[in-house]
TrEMBL record:
Residues 282-330 are annotated as: Disordered. This is Phosphatidylglycerol--prolipoprotein diacylglyceryl transferase. Residues 314-330 have a biased composition (Low complexity). Catalyzes the transfer of the diacylglyceryl group from phosphatidylglycerol to the sulfhydryl group of the N-terminal cysteine of a prolipoprotein, the first step in the formation of mature lipoproteins.
């Protein structure tokens, strides 16, 4: 293998699992799974804070994640298996390997589809507007994906074509994704690192645009789709183990990235035309959450006061969150 000064070293196989002994029981936790779990926790905490600032019930994000996370994991695995069938269906293959998500092989585009379905169900259950939740999640999702990509580094996966760049990634010669015939000291494009950097920059850009232009109604999530799709369309094109299917010579994952960009543009344009003002509430009409300590003192209300409202029905001079009313609950 190349020296430390010639490229980025990859962790050895011993780093892919963390042994834990508790009460005589021996457990091995996959490092990849830990990275994904940390990403989910970070995203949940940040999304919850963003929703609470909008006026949502504290902790409501957990009710949505109960649906979004499992369906997102299922979608991620199904998408990967469908686009890489030769890795799981061959003579002598273990059919149960399809379920071994801890060994890697989870596609983000499948996760987005499954997670979106789960989020929609959770939002219907809690009364939250789907686009409000999607906007709150968007930058947190990018950050979670950046954290999760460290798991690809530990598993020595998600690397690109051979390179002579000084930051080339060292991969064990026994890795099945390496084409036959390459020298053992070959370095590869560190796609996991490129995506981490791209995602972190995206978090900064999206949060800045959201605050500068007060983006709501799903437009923040639209920016996420555009940003992530653009990045992945390039990274997938130089990946050494692309999906096994292609159309017009373009791998399936690159087409999926193009679809994400187009979908983001469509959502942004449509929502910009449909909603020119701010959301009146993070909840759908009739499902608003009322703070337990909220008190209304009729004696403090002056019947002579006049209250004007903007185009969205929000009283002038008040924030979108404070203008909510009603007695709905989850």
């Amino acid at each position: 293998m190349s020296s430390w000064y010639a490229g980025i070293p990859s962790p050895g196989p011993e780093w892919q699992q963390i042994p834990i002994d508790i009460f005589g029981l021996h457990w091995r936790i996959q490092t990849y799974a830990i990275c994904i779990l940390i990403g989910i926790i970070v995203a949940a905490i940040w999304t919850s804070r963003r929703l609470t600032k909008r006026g949502a019930e504290p902790g409501v994000v957990l009710d949505i994640l109960l649906w979004a996370v499992p369906l997102g994991i299922i979608g991620a695995r199904l998408y990967h298996v469908v686009t890489h069938p030769n890795d799981y269906f061959y003579e002598g293959a273990n059919p149960w390997a399809v379920l071994y998500i801890w060994e890697g092989g989870n596609a983000i585009f499948g996760s987005l589809i499954g997670g979106a379905v789960g989020a929609w169900i959770g939002c219907r259950w809690t009364g939250l507007r789907f686009w409000t939740f999607a906007d709150a999640l968007a930058p947190a999702l990018l950050l979670a994906q950046a954290i999760g990509r460290l798991g690809n580094w530990f598993n020595q996966e998600l690397f690109g074509l051979p390179t002579s760049l000084p930051w080339g990634l060292e991969i064990d010669p026994t890795n099945k994704a390496i084409p036959v015939g390459l020298p053992e000291d070959t370095l590869f494009q560190p796609l996991f690192l490129y995506e981490i950097i791209w995602n972190v920059i995206g978090v900064i850009v999206i949060v800045w645009l959201e605050r500068k232009f007060r983006l709501q109604w799903g437009k923040v999530f639209a920016l996420y789709l555009i940003w992530y799709g653009l990045g992945r369309s390039y990274l997938e094109s130089i990946r050494i183990d692309p999906s096994e299917f292609s159309f017009l010579g373009i791998p399936t994952n690159v087409w999926a990235a193009f679809v994400a960009v187009v979908l983001g543009v469509v959502i942004f344009i449509v929502q910009s035309r449909r909603h020119t003002g701010l959301e009146p509430s993070p909840y759908r009409p009739g499902r608003e959450w009322v703070r337990p300590d909220a008190e209304v003192d009729s004696d403090d209300t002056d019947p002579d006061d006049e209250v004007s409202a903007d185009d969205d029905g929000v009283p002038a001079g008040s924030s979108a969150a404070s203008a909510t009313s009603g007695h709905g609950s989850k």
